[in-house]
Amino acid sequence: MKTRAFTVSQRAAFEQLLDDPSPKVRQALIAEFTRSSLESVDFLRELSAKQDHPLAPHAAHYLRDLSFADPVSEFRDFIRSLNYELETGAILLSRTVNPNLDVGACCTQLDALAARCRELIAEPASAREKCRVINRVLFHEHGLRGNTEHYADPLNSYIDQVLKRRKGIPISLSIIYILVAERIGLQLEAIALPGHFMVGCFEESVPFFIDTFNAGVFLTAEETFDFVKQVSGSASITDLAPTAVREVLTRCCRNLANHYSAARQSDQAALFAGFVAEFDATYERHAEP
Question: Which residues are paired to 167 by β-bridges?
């Protein structure tokens, strides 16, 4: 039996609402998509496949909310798509081991953290002042912290678990920091240092760096450079450059492969090592000659 597609007016109405951050709008759309599941699958998959369409990542979010895909296959499809968006990738990564992850609840929690930040920001505010507010909300009010006791616990790498357990490792804490900042209109960058991970702010004339594993302490470029030299023995100015989303997610997978291997969970270690290989192979296939 052929699926009845949404009408042009229905599609237009949904497209106007897909990127609405309101939890009430999100819940209403989920309810409507659930009632019309077959039509919804076609509509959302068609839209999410349009790599250059601004609503593609939002359509992908709703597909995940509705559990219309196999999580491992979906993450592999994401890797091959080259349409890398940090929040989408982090949630898809978590769903590979937790297929029942409540995506809507996870996004709503990030929304709530950002809303609290907006409450405390007195505009006009500088980027540094906004980061101080994010520090207060994430590390003092919400209680996020680095898991120094069990650093190699794989749960430290999954965004939903970090938000739930309120502890993580530098890369997962940095991802949450960046996603909350993005929601309040502040563009921050992932900084993949050798042996560590931080957040960089280049919005002001003098950049600064944020150590999310250490309660969001601010570091100058010189202090960060010295830190890299202490950790790795040598440093290059390129170590302080922003890191592409592909590289951030590849590093998450590599960490998980190592942590699962150390825990002697060979199947999970192989799964994430496979994701690393998929990222590398996809990049090599599409890299400019």
Answer: 145
Q: How far apart are the first and last CA of the chain?
A: 47
Largest interatomic CA distance in the chain: 65
Helices (H), the chain: 8-17, 23-35, 37-48, 56-65, 71-81, 86-95, 103-120, 127-135, 159-165, 170-183, 221-232, 245-262, 266-286
pLDDT in the model for residue 149: 97
Residue-wise pLDDT tens digits, 105-141: 888 899 999 999 999 999 999 999 999 999 999 999 9
Q: How confident is the model at residue 78 (pLDDT cuts 50, 70, 90)?
A: confident
Return d(Cα 75, Cα 9) in angstroms, integer.
Answer: 31
Residue among 67, 69, 63, 218 at smallest CA distance from 133? 218
| Beta pairing partners, 146 | 168
Strand partners, 191: 198
Q: Which residues pair with 220 in a beta bridge?
A: 208
For residue 217, the cross-strand partners are: 211
Q: Residue 5 carries which DSSP code? A: P
